[in-house]
Fold this sequence. Notes:
This protein has helices spanning 32-37, 167-170, and strands spanning 3-5, 12-14, 19-21, 24-26, 46-53, 57-63, 71-77, 79-86, 97-103, 109-112, 116-122, 126-133, 142-144. The protein is 6% helix and 40% strand. The strands form three sheets. It has a six-stranded antiparallel β-sheet, with no helix packed on it. It is globular. The N and C termini lie far apart (36 Å). It is mainly beta. The longest helix is centred in the first third of the chain and has 6 residues, at 32-37.
Amino acid sequence: MPFIPTPIPDLLVFEPQVWADERGYFFEAFNAQTFKAAGIEANFVQDNQARSTFGVLRGLHYQLEPFAQAKLVRVLEGEVLDVVVDIRRQSPTYGQSYSIRLSAANKKQLFVPRGFAHGYVVLSPTAEFFYKCDNFYSKAHEGGIHYNDPQLQIDWEIDLNEAVLSEKDQVLPYFGAHR
């Protein structure tokens, strides 16, 4: 199977098989049957794409019920450090984070189940980030956690003085005070 477990249950890295030759390459970025065989039955209903420059840090974001979202994230151009935090209160890994470098070169994807805060920072001059969601976005149900929370101690792999953040992300609550 092309799925690699992480230290956090239900959070999986997807490494598709790539067929390459002198013409370029081909791979299946998503196949419902492959995901179902791995126990993932997400019904993706929305695709999102963002282009950002070096140091842009987006997150940590999530959606509350009934609009919680599972995501399948990947990078189409460039490289990012992708970060998730388990916010499932009954989970044995509640409050733990996981990070992975996703890039156009490595073609890795991260399946993020519902119940995780998610964010990423751009490590290359530019990056195009793409993700599938299994539920629709609702502004009234959005939540977030401050990217530089001292309790989480996330290593974003850049000098945070160089981070480019939205006004909204600069004032997100710290872990434990999030809704």
